[in-house]
Structure formats: C-alpha cells, structure tokens
Amino acid sequence: MQDKRRIETIAGLAVIAFLFIGMSFLSQLYGDEILKFALAEYNFSKALYVLMIIFAIVVAPFSTVPLIPLASHLWGWTIAGMLSIVGWVIGAQIAFILARWFGKPFVERIFPLKKLHTFENNFSDKNLFWTVALLRIIVPVDILSYAIGLFSEMNSTPFFFATLIGVTPFAFIFAYAGTLPVRLQLLVLIGMIAFLGIVFIVRNVVQGRKK
C-alpha cells in the first residue's frame, strides 16, 4: 500500500512538472503577447493570480505550480515568487482555520479523510513548528493545511510563520526555474525522476533484506 502511494505521489509530481515545463514553453513562445496583457491589466492580473492560488488551496484542490512560469514572464521571477508566497500563505491560513472551526464534516467534502489521516501521526508537540515548515517542502499546501487544522494543537500564529518559512524558498526557486530554457528544465526533470527512481529502488532493496 505504501509503495502504491509513493508511486502515485511520484506520478503526480511528474505530471505537475511536465505541465510546468509546458507552460514555460508557451510563455516563452508568446512572450510579447503576454507582456502586452501584463502592461494593460497590471494590477488586475496580479490579484487574479493570487486569488487563483487561494481558491485552489481552499476550494478546488489542484496545483497552481504550472502557472508560475506564466507569472514569471508577466512580472519577473522575483515578483512572481512573492505573489506565490502571498497566495500560498493566505490560502493555507484559510484552510487551517476552516478545518479548526468546522472539523471533519466540512473537510471531508473537499478531501477523503483517509488521505488526511496518513499525516495524523506526524503532528506531535515536539518540534511541531519545524515539522510543519519541512513538510511544506514535500506535501501540497492544501492537504497539509487541512490536516494540521484537524489533527494538531498548533495555534494560528506559529502555523502562519511555519508556512511562510516553508514555502518561501521554493516559491522563488520555481519562479526562477520558470524563466530557464525549456531544454534545461527537461534535463532537470529527467534528473529528478531518475534520482527519485533510484531512491525508491534502493529503499525497496534495503527493506527486502531486512525482512
């Protein structure tokens, strides 16, 4: 069962990565048209981007990571990174509060509770702040935010800062990566998939020997 979940996770990340690269290609191909739109609807397009991130986290769980290359070409990778941070942090805070206030009956309308229960044992009181910050690196913002709201005793303020610390590095990394040539992005993706595949195989071999 755990192997199946790992495979599904890797497959999901691979799909998001290919969508990210596809959006980078389109953004670079139609850069002039995108720039014209950005200049004409400068503030509106920024607000819309942040609102889409928040909506994706709170209401309709889908990844907005593939939109980051578009944002980088619209406003530059620095602003795109900052806007992504704003959207992720606000969306995470809303999801956390909704889970804390309305509990399982509300959350199960958005996520299968089985999916959230897999994180239940990760939220001990010891080093919870840094656990949340580190989990932000590998767990989608929406799932983790609802899970913490349901299964932890963490308060809203430390949750806010743990989220801010956790999402900030990758917001800028993704934003900068969206400006790189597509060929280089593909090479990085292939390298990451190969690395994850090797880790997966080695782990299975080690676990098999222990048995």
UniProtKB/TrEMBL annotation:
Keyword flag Cytoplasm: no
Keyword Transmembrane: yes
Annotated InterPro entries: TMEM64, VTT_dom
Keywords, ordered alphabetically: Cell membrane, Membrane, Transmembrane, Transmembrane helix
Gene Ontology CC annotation, any one: plasma membrane
Domain spans labelled VTT: 66-179
Protein family: Belongs to the TVP38/TMEM64 family.
Pfam families: VTT_dom
Location in or out of the cell: Cell membrane
Domain of life: Bacteria
The protein, known as: TVP38/TMEM64 family membrane protein
TM region positions: 7-27, 47-68, 75-102, 128-151, 158-178, 184-206
Topological category with respect to the lipid bilayer: Multi-pass membrane protein
